[in-house]
């Protein structure tokens, strides 16, 4: 499980719209990676809208923000279009990055156990180290909290 102070695992993932994003190529910008369970569900939509609403402030602070789920780039594109999202979304269909960041976890709903993405956010500093980790994220106020942490870097 990735924790504060560790080097963030590097990756290359496809972004909606067709480009690939490589984490290490974004240096020296700070990077926010928020992992979420599924496009177009209530909590995930609220989270994406919240990060999109603050994108200009994240950019002003020099940070890049990306949402990551196992949904396809095509589904991400439809999700972004439907909700007019400005936050770029990365597709981890194979789940490799989710596993390396420890967000692929056993969950439980209505007494039924299943595997899925645990809503988590990682703030990576300009040197590629994990500066802050939020696990089991509650959506209200989260994007604002992350923005404050970015500004404090």
From TrEMBL:
Pfam families noted in UniProt: AhpC-TSA
Thioredoxin domain segment(s): 2-153
GO MF annotations, alphabetized: thioredoxin peroxidase activity
Transmembrane segments: none
GO cellular component labels: cytoplasm
Keywords: Antioxidant, Disulfide bond, Oxidoreductase, Peroxidase, Redox-active center
EC number assigned by the record: 1.11.1.24
Active site: 44 (cysteine sulfenic acid (-soh) intermediate)
Biological processes, Gene Ontology terms: cell redox homeostasis; cellular response to oxidative stress
Protein family: Belongs to the peroxiredoxin family. BCP/PrxQ subfamily.
Binding partners and assembly: Monomer.
Protein name, as recorded: thioredoxin-dependent peroxiredoxin
Organism: Rhodovulum euryhalinum
Species lineage: Bacteria, Pseudomonadati, Pseudomonadota, Alphaproteobacteria, Rhodobacterales
